[in-house]
Task: structure prediction
Amino acid sequence: MSVRCVILDIGGVLEITPETGWVRRWEERLALPLGTVHERMHEVWQAGSVGDIGEHDVREQVAERLGIDGPQVEAFMADLWEEYLGTPNNELIDYVRGLRGKCGLGILSNSFVGARERETALYHFDELVDEIVYSHEIGIEKPDPRAFEAACAALGASPESCLFIDDVAVNVAAAQAAGMQAHLFEDNARTIARIAAHLDAGSSLPGRAPLA
Result:
């Protein structure tokens, strides 16, 4: 029997990440039409999310595509990371910390190059869970089934023994299709109750629908 595991997303789950409006502020500052930043940077954002580009190259592309200089690039990136990192969801983090040694714990995150270093420094997720699987390090993003396979493999667990928590419905559905238990994060209370039920129930049948 595979050990029971809980695998969590970061942004919107372990981190509270509301939109800060930073992109629109930069468009206004640079006198650019609405949507210009994402249009020009889309390929860079995608490359960074699967590790096809490094942080230095990201900065060079920001400067070239937006026509800004060094200090502006650093300010732009600081605003990006401020929204990306958000603030810690302390209630859920404290609960997960209390599970150490009771089950396997992992993180599966669609990420951006540089995320591990910053999240480790700020939130110490490396001390919270056993394994962290970042999309920019494995070159695969959710909802690709290979991302869920990588997370289960990192923990040495079978999919049916793992409960995956995410705030994006398509990722939850993809995890279920991969044979995992899955729960759509909406609030801490229901998520904590779902984790507790998963651990109390032991190994569940593959394909079982998640509890609300």
